[in-house]
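User: My collaborator sent over this chain with a note saying "see what the structure looks like." That's all I know about it. Can you take a look?
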Amino acid sequence: MADREQLIQRARMAEQAERYDDMASAMKQNVVGARRSSWRVTSSIEQRAMADGNDKKLELVKAYRETIEKELETVCQDVLNLLDQFLIKSCGEDQLESKVFYLKMKGDYYRYLAEVATAEKKTSAVESSEGAYKEAYEISKSMAATHPIRLGLALNFSVFYYEIQNAPEEACKLAKEAFDEAIGHLDNLNEDSYKDSTLIMQLLRDNLTLWTSDQQDSEGGEAQP
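Assistant: Without extra context I'll predict from the sequence alone. Here is the result:
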């Protein structure tokens, strides 16, 4: 796993130089993204093999999925250790933006673990993810409603409620509040962050449209083809 080793090495070099932003940058690389995608594809193939009764294929796919899970868990845990041991602790009282960003990141990585975990591991990951998101959310209330970090937190926290907690109403409520508050403060939007903020607002609106439609379909009436 050369990419994982390189990730940790870069993060630790940044830590030794006390360049905490560089640590975050090193950890933000899309090391986890590829494995999450691979896990989803492999899980889908595994389900089809199970339905077809193809035991030989099922055994192979299951072993591959478990390998991906272990790699994903290792990378996520490395990142979470760096967040807890260095990044979050390094934030002073005047560094609220950084603290929200790192807590959001903590929530994200526990969410990634929750996607693939089972039984007690899943329960623990879900609780840790929600705890980090909630702490970040409370702190973010002191930030501008249009701040991209605050909006990004609302986006990911709402996805957590929808996909992990299976709580569409809570997800829609959180996303709608964030979108509406940002719309109400568009005149105060910082020119430097305009592109980032409006992009996240669009993602919030897209999710709201999709989730609301899904709820209506499940409450009655046939889904349109």
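A starting point for your reply to your collaborator: The chain has two domains: 1-90, 93-220.
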